[in-house]
Fold this sequence. Notes:
Elements lengths: L1 H40 L23 H8 L14 H27 L5 H25 L11 H22 L26 E3 L16 E3 L8 H17 L24 H4 L2 H22 L1 H17 L7 H26 L13 E4 L10 H4 L8 H19 L11 H26 L1 H9 L6 E5 L7 H14 L6 H30 L13 H18 L2 H10 L3 H36 L1
Antiparallel strand pairs: 1-2, 3-4
Helix pairs in contact: 3-4, 3-9, 3-19, 4-5, 5-8, 5-9, 10-17, 12-13, 13-15, 15-16, 16-17, 17-19
Amino acid sequence: MVRFVSILSLLSCAAALTTAHMDMDMDAPATTLLDVSATATLVPVPHEPKHVHGVPILQWPSLTPAERLYWQNYNTTTYFTTREGSRAALRYHATTLLLLAFVLYPLSLALSAASSRWYLPLLFANLCVGASSVAALSLFKITFPADDLYPHNIYGTTSAVLIALMLVHFFAAVLAVPVSPESLNDYHPVDAIPLDDLESTPVMVVHSARGSPSPSSNRDTLCSLSSGTNHKRDHLRDNDDDYDDDDDDDDSADADITAVEAPPLAPQDVPVFNILFACARYQALARRLSRPALTVFHLLNYPLLLYVFADVVVGFAVGNLLGKGIRIFNLLAHWIKGGVFFTLGVVSLARYCGFGAKYGWAWNRVCFTAQLSKERSSNLLFRFAPAGTITMEGIESFLIFFYGSTNVFLEHLAGSGGAWTAKDLQHVSIAFMFIGTGLCGLLTEYKLNHWRLEHARGHSHADLVAATPGYSPNPFPAFTIFWTGILMSQHAQASETSTTIHMQWGYLLSYGSFFRLLTYLILFLVPSARRGTASKPFTELITSFCLFCGGLVFMESTDQSIDAMEYRGLTPMFTFNLSVGFVSLLMAWEMILFIWKDWLVKKRKTSL
């Protein structure tokens, strides 16, 4: 019996093993067939994409029904993409406006700084191009259908104001031209020449309150740094000649640092307009209006460039239907702040190239003698200037304080009438930081006033009423930019694309402020060998680039810009690369303009 049970157990085990083996044989062919069919439809790639960035957002598999509904109804129609209206008129308007902003008007500013005889003809060409551009815009609006894409936009108004300002600026420039060579000294502000070495050279040039003397009159306007000390005419001539020789030997861009600008032109030197200047009626009108005309001209000359850029920006926004409805507040917040940092980059690079050298803003030392104390009232910039002069750091601190003061209530405009949200308070806290750091910067400038005077004077006992070493070790403007960048780089956004772009411009601003602090360190520890020339710290070039690019990327981080990028599948690195390339070209163009201006000034000096 036991043997029978054992036989049955062996048979059952054998059956089980046979069944298992049959199952394995049946499964094997099926698995093999599945692998072959799947392999036949696959395309071999080295790496599968792990994310959906870089493809249009409608192809993202993770969209919620609400998100998909939004993007399916996303409208890409703008003034630039529609076929309505006169396309030729729109293209002409856009082309000529960009030409005016980036080429023609900057060229005219360079000619103006060099007192070139071609300045007024080019300024007239600017006016003609601007007028034709606005006329083309009017033609486009007339030919566009009645159902306007952007009703009640302000671009037509800003364009009309632009032409009005250009007209006023042009006629002010025409009337400000002196009517005779003898009256040249009536039309130019106070100026002073930086001094190379106060200890070894006891004299310096001080221009009259009304004139920027020509080379022939420079020697007559030299005065002693020590009041009551008279020098012989020959000694003054020798010192002035030595100064000129030093300047001529320097072939670098330091030539523009001397406050002796190109000699003013006589009316008969200006092409085309010399016939007008010879007219008796013009001369009679200019005698009455030349002074107020010159004031208007200076008030508009550089600010008009900023307005042209503002008009370009408004036109770009309206043309792409940006800022409609409540989105106007997001657009203004990004474009105003980004535009401020972009403009600061332009000014920083201009300072490196010599802009504002006669006020010590080009990292150069400038001193003013007691002679200037009688003449300060003729120049608004010097009327209330302290002994340490008005520095660029002081101007930056004031603008930071002013902007923070206005931005307190601007942050709540989108939710006007409602309760303050955490987002409103987060933004307004940055405005408080601007108020605090701006005020600290102004107080620091007050504390550094005597330090700047003594640091520029050195060991000399000259009777100086104002002096600056060319910089003020005031960290608060750079400190404000640094923390603005850090705070905004950590500002989480609704989408990963927007967060990444905020990090890009936030880090750029932080890097720029870091190199600005290095500039102060270099100037403090390594004074310039030639005290009257600019130190040209290389760190300012990097600072300018960071401010340029950071401001531009800041302006690209608006909600509607992010939507347009995500809809088309553009990554943050795409716009970042484009911004870097554009800023590099723009910086090169700005430097070319200053080099050209310096060449024009030097050419005029040598030709007289």
